[in-house]
Backbone:
């Protein structure tokens, strides 16, 4: 154990399943009594470091003592496994568990390694320190955005409080057993009034604050004095962010008449299925299967490509496949794959139609130009006809004035009309010939 964990235990806001806090008190007690100082935790530390498994390996062949890490994996289509066990803290602990800073580095290594297709977070934790959860959920979101690789949470006995917040940020949550525990979405802080125990040991202390530091530790001092309002306000800030992270990762959480997962209840996996807190119950093979499916389907399409499929097209495709489904039915893997195939075919159809529409738009532009040229030519022809009719009328009027006479000059012939568009020149000149005279 390091001083940092002891500091977390005494001073931090925790997202922790309540029954697990006694274990932290025992750790702190043993640390104070010097019982942990000389213990060798090297094996424990090794058990908590990230390792790599083959996508085709059987679960019983998984060896967390392997020297292969997310950074040096050389086998293609491998899966990085990052253990999250015990109390979750920001920094690594000498007594074993890695901190979230190290976990984020393992994520970065897995993302940068082209032989790693996906990541499994192997979780067995009652929760931990609030800032550690915020740190790792940020890291998970950055990993998915930056590397476009799936990440699946595989829960052993428990993923409670901060551990569940981390799992909720993953693409899928798989529990190993129907009695695995999830939930405990909430926050609390434990305040220890150490004065009495110190006085029992003959140690007397007094806290003295500078005149300009009247608000320093005010929420804690007020709580110890009986006024919990300031510290409750602080806890609300943490709790609101916690629930926001969970609801973003699992937007379809269902509340029953007796249980509200967002109020801090712990829930068995068998019940969590119906509340959309988890996706499935199964072994490590199922978790790997989800990794492979996500790698070859959802994550094989870039986000920009996926958004090309319109909402209407998507809903039509879904409706055409699930016509026999009724409320409460589950979707099979085969149906999901069929949906992906259908959506892909619909996208090809949409792309082809877009090409046809583009060609038709070009034709419309050309036709509009042709119509404009014809209108211009028609106007020019009408002007020429009007001029010819005027000359004709003048000639007839002269004949009427002098019966039996022949005009001294012939009617002026109409010159060919100049039209800028050669397509209509001949048409206009042919019309004009009808009014020529020799």
Residues:
């Amino acid at each position: 154990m390091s001083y940092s964990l002891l500091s977390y235990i005494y001073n931090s806001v925790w997202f922790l399943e309540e029954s697990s806090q006694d274990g932290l008190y025992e750790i702190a007690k043993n640390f104070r009594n010097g019982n942990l100082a000389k213990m060798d935790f090297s094996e424990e530390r090794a058990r908590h470091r990230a390792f790599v498994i083959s996508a085709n390996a059987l679960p019983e062949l998984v060896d967390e003592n392997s020297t292969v890490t997310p950074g040096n994996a050389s086998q293609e289509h491998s899966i990085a496994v990052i253990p999250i066990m015990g109390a979750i803290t920001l920094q690594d602990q000498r007594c074993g568990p890695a901190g979230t800073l190290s976990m984020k580095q393992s994520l970065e290594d897995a993302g940068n390694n082209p032989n790693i297709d996906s990541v499994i977070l192997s979780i067995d934790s009652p929760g931990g320190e609030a800032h550690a959860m915020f740190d790792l959920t940020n890291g998970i979101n950055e990993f998915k955005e930056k590397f476009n690789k799936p990440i699946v949470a595989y829960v052993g006995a428990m993923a409670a409080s901060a551990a569940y917040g981390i799992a909720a940020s993953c693409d899928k949550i798989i529990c190993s057993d129907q009695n695995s525990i999830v939930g405990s979405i909430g926050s609390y802080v434990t305040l220890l009034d150490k004065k009495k125990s110190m006085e029992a040991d003959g140690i007397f202390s007094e806290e003295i604050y500078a005149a300009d530091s009247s608000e320093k530790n005010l929420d804690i001092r007020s709580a110890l004095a009986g006024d919990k309002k300031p510290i409750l306000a602080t806890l609300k800030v943490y709790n609101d962010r916690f629930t926001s992270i969970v609801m973003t990762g699992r937007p379809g959480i269902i509340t029953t008449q007796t249980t509200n997962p967002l109020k801090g209840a712990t829930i068995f996996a068998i019940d969590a299925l119906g509340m959309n807190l988890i996706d499935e119950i199964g072994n490590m093979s199922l978790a790997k299967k989800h990794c492979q499916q996500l790698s070859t389907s959802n994550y094989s399409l870039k986000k920009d490509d996926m958004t090309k499929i319109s909402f209407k097209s998507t809903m039509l495709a879904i409706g055409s496949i699930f016509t026999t489904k009724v409320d409460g039915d589950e979707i099979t893997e085969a149906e999901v794959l069929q949906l992906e195939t259908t959506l892909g075919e619909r996208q090809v159809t949409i792309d082809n139609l877009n090409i046809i529409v583009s060609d038709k738009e070009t034709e419309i532009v050309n036709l509009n130009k042709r119509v404009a040229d014809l209108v211009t030519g028609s106007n020019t022809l009408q002007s020429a006809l009007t001029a010819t009719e005027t000359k004709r009328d003048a000639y007839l009027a002269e004949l009427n004035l002098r019966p039996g006479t022949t005009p001294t000059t012939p009617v002026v012939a109409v010159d060919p009309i100049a039209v800028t568009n050669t397509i209509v020149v001949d048409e206009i000149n042919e019309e004009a010939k009808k009014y020529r005279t020799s």
Summary: The first strand starts at residue 14 and ends at 16.
